[in-house]
Amino acid sequence: MHRxxxxxxxxxxxxxxxxxxxxxxxxxxxxxxxxxxxYVIGVNDQKMLQSLYWGPRLAPNxxxxxxxxxxxxxxxxxxxxxxxxxxxxxxxxxxTEPALKVDSPDGNRTxxxxxxxxxxxxxxxxxxxxxxxxxxxxxxxxxxxxxxxLARWTRIENxxxxxxRIEQAASATFNxxxxxxxxxxxxxxxxAGEWQLHTAPIQAGTQSIESRRxxxxxxxxxxxxVGRSAETTETSGPVWFGELGWSGSWRLTLEDTALNLVRITxxxxxxDFSYTLARGETLQTPPFYAGYxxxxxxxxxxxxxxxxxxxxxxxxxxxxxxxxxYNSWEATGFNVNESxxxxxxxxxxxxxxxxxxxxDGWFGARNDDHAGLGDWNVNPxxxxxxxxxxxxxxxxxxxxxxxxxxxxxxxxxxxxxxxxPDWAMHFPNRQRTEQRNQLVLNLARQDVxxxxxHFLDELVTDNDIAFLKWDYNRNWSEPGWDxxxxxxxxxxxxxxxxxxxxxxxxxxxxxxxxxIESCSGGGGRVxxxxxxxxxxxxxxxxxxxxxxxxxxxxxTHAYAPQIMVAxxxxxxxxxxxxxxxxxxxxxxxxxxxxxxxxxNKFSENELAESRSLIALYKTIRPTIAHGRLYxxxxxxxxxxxxxxxxxxxxxxxxxxxxxxVVLAYLHSQRFGLSYPAVVLRGLDPNATYTIKPxxxxxxxxxxxxSGSILMGQGLALNLQGDYDSTVVVLTRR
Length: 733
Ligand code: GLA
Fold this sequence. Notes:
eight-stranded parallel β-sheet, binds alpha-D-galactopyranose, ten-stranded antiparallel β-sheet, alpha+beta, globular, disordered N terminus, Beta-galactosidase, Chain A, domain 5
């Protein structure tokens, strides 16, 4: 107890929204405040650390009685399972999701984590728990961010002489206030159809989302939000939300078990998991970030957006809006060469593109997806003089240069695989399952890690490369690591990702101007782990503008428009749909605009239209990238029963309020129905805004309109016919 006296940190004269940690040593309680959220934990009469509160920010003098473990409710409900513990070890009859499960050499598999001590350092609290007898220390970290986010992660330490095997390790458990009537939202998908938002009541029992694939996955993203069914909407009501910062296999489990207690546990996926701690060794989990707002799902997203920009991205707190990319992947496929790329570069520069990227096909014997991955030398037939002439030309045209790589993969038909077949992940004497004709390199191995770092370092050193599109086009099938010591092979799930992060981080340190995009056949690797090392992501290989409206809408629940790369591509798209060029541009403008169409086939009119839309985008880009996003409507699914023309509207308001941008899309026009008024949000009701639509005919109302009218009655837009669209710029007078 003697250390407790030193823990008292009382926040004096700190503005209301600042992050503070208040210790109440006599009760062994800690109140963590950030943004509009408070989070309170305390040590109970059984010396276990439990959750006392997670919700709206408390008054400075709010105080809780000493924490009490729940009494045994019935012989089937022991205290350990019904008390909302912060980090439960498996033991003493815990039948809910354990945060930690270990196997000790003496055969003991029970873990009872009791409070040992705590320490506050600035905005960080560390609480150490210790098993009653086993030499296992568990350090729980709580880090507050001014955006209103609490990050929690855990370091597990073996202080004994014998190794301890961890079978399950979560980052944290978050307990919701005991209540009924919760609903939760999550994002699911598939290749070319990521980011589909689902909302459903939380059911009694266990619900989980996960990836067992070795990476984040298209199928589920480690994000959740919880609301109250009767109260929570896009614009109001309580929302508890969170996101795991990990790019490997993960699991998020949401349990509604006994006494109306809902808890959310996330961390390493326990499936096929094992990690051995030798004497003195530690395992650190990824951070699990969480927040609370009373402002509905929209505000929860805006908090996450600010947090991503100001605290996570490599160039935080003020990442520059993304340059406009040209990439010919959809137009030319693997057929890239010096003259072809130079010709496209001329056209791209002429319409206002700022960054020219050569995608797949520039290296090795890479004429299709059967060969070449792993051989990162420039293909001499396609680029007989190396990349330099193209890069010089791109620079002369006023753009910077980027290159596609897929560093973690190998084709069987490659010099790398012929030289090092053992570098691919595999189980001895078992089939190596190919996907897209490729295998995954075992980045957990030091030699593979060294190889990957060195070839990338050399590539960026030898060529003037500003940007890498870092791709990752399959998941794991045989996650074997036969050169690891016996019993350690399953650590591949952790060590691979740690090495990936390490390569990215060293590369960036050595090449500080280098920017990187995280791509995995579209949005298969988007999470707050990879985003600490990458500047932007490719949300989906689906570039059809209408499909993109719902993909992008879902994406923005968890991640910011700043990082959401979107290209204008050719029509008909792969799904055979044709949309007008303007509709495609305005959809791509929701995030980081890029162009992927075959500009050689563009008419003079199309080039001119592209040039003027890109010029317009540049004037609104800071607002889109850094502003506050308001999703004004659900994205419009084709709904023949709709009783109005089907609208889809998003709005961005600059942080300083000087500009607002509305993007509006009409999917299909019903006879005789006009476009519903677009009711804006987030404006100053007392200010007047000057309104400028893309085309004068699209808005025929007053030029200068009060914010109160725009947020009351809305903006009457004249959109006509299928796939019409507009962008309206509002300038505060
Ligand atoms: C993935 C990416 C695409 C493209 C191809 C190249 O599918 O998502 O954008 O780079 O690989 O092979």
